[in-house]
Amino acid sequence: MSTLPQTGHEHHERIREHVDRLPALADMLEQRPVPDEFAPRFAAEYDFMTGTLWPHVQVVEQNVYPELERLQQNRHSMAHLRREHEQLGELIESMGGYMDRVEAGGLNPTDALGLRRLIIQFYATVKTHVGEEEEYLRVLQANLSDAEQNSVEHGLEHASTE
Hints:
- The chain is about 80% helix and about 0% strand.
- It starts with a helix and ends with a helix.
- The chain has about 160 residues and is mainly alpha-helical.
- It has helices spanning about 5-20, 20-30, 40-65, 65-70, 80-95, 100-105, 110-145, 145-160.
């Protein structure tokens, strides 16, 4: 039987697999012209962001953060992590604004720089955010009953199967 931190780590590893591809993707945007392979690679990572990562964020907001806030009696609110979730949503939306130009192969240098900046910001935010979430899962493991942990874990597992 896995533990809550193990379940969270498994989810985060799937996220890291994609997020760790982003620096190379961003570097492609420095080339002139932007290589043809950028468009399908960016589309695949964007699909991951919208189809897997964003639903994961919503599950964490519903299943993990409320338990942490309850345990901490809101003294150490999860507000900063919720703000990062909002920031990630805004970055995803902003990256989506470039999709038509990416698919058309029409990124001018200004577009390429703007999209590169968004990709790097997204990468940095996710990398630090995931590390912090894993620490909080250890807090839950140490402070929740087995039944409470199973409930949170079930919510995370349910999200990964959808």
